[in-house]
Amino acid sequence: MDGIDTKNPAQIKQMQATLDNLGLSKPKEALTEQSLGQEDFMSLMLAQMNHQDPFKPMENGDFLAQMAQFSSVKGLKEIKDSFNTLATSLQSSQALQASSMVGRGVLVPGKTSNLAAAGELKGAVEVPASTSELKVNIFDAGGQLVKTLELGSQQEGVTHFNWDGSLDKTAPDGSAMQANAGKYTVQAEMTTDGEPQALSTLIIDKVQSVSLGKIGEPVTLHLTTAGKTSLADIKQIM
User: Fold this and answer.
1) Which domains does the chain have, with CATH numbers?
2) 47-65 burial, b for 16+ CB within 10 Å, e for fewer?
3) How far apart are CA 108 and CA 229, in angstroms?
4) Least confident interval from 71-80, 104-113, 213-222
5) β-strand pairing of 112-115 with 182-192
6) pTM, entire model
C-alpha cells in the first residue's frame, strides 16, 4: 500500500480502522480462528486504492489478477472439501461391502490351501488359451505328489476344480485311500503343441475378518489360509 503518509494522523487513523475491521491488528492468539473472506479482500483492495501513490498507481490488470487469484483459491478449497466428503462416503460404502464378506468364501490368487477332514479342496486355474490337456498336481506338506486331477481339454478362461481328498495310491486291499486333513500345494499346467506350460492358480479361502485403513487406503481381508489380502485381489465371492 504505497503512498501512506506516516506523519498524517488522518491516514494513520483510517488505516488503523481498516485493520481493526479486518481483525489484522488483534493479537496473534485472537487470529487463529479468523480467515479472510471475499468482503475482507474487497476492503483491503479499496484501502490499497485509497492510499496508493498517485504518481505510481496500480494498473487495472493488477486488481483483476488479484481478484482472479482469490476466486481461484476459494474454488480449489471448495473442490478439495467436496472430494474429502466423497472419499468419506466411498470408504463407508466400501466398509459396508467388505463387512458383509466375513464368513464367506473368496477366490484369490494362491497355490496353498487347506483340506478339512472329510472336506474338499477347491480352486481354479486361469487358462490363457485353449488347450488339449489341463491338469492340476497336488502336493502334501513334504512336497510329495499325492494326486493329479486330469481336467482334459479346456477353453480360454477360468476353470474350476474340486479335490475330495482321495489319493492316487490305493490300500493293500485295493480300497481307495484318503488324504489327511492339512495344508496342500496345487500346481497347474497345460499342454500346447506337446509342450507343458505352468499356469497361475486360484484357491478358495474363507474371510475371517476385515480391517479398514485410512481414507485412500485399501480394505484388507484376513483369510484363513492366505492371511492378509487386499480387497482388490479378490477374483470372486462365493
Assistant:
1) 9-96 (no CATH), 105-237 (2.60.40.4070)
2) bbeebeeeeeeeeeeeeee
3) 9
4) 71-80
5) antiparallel
6) 0.57
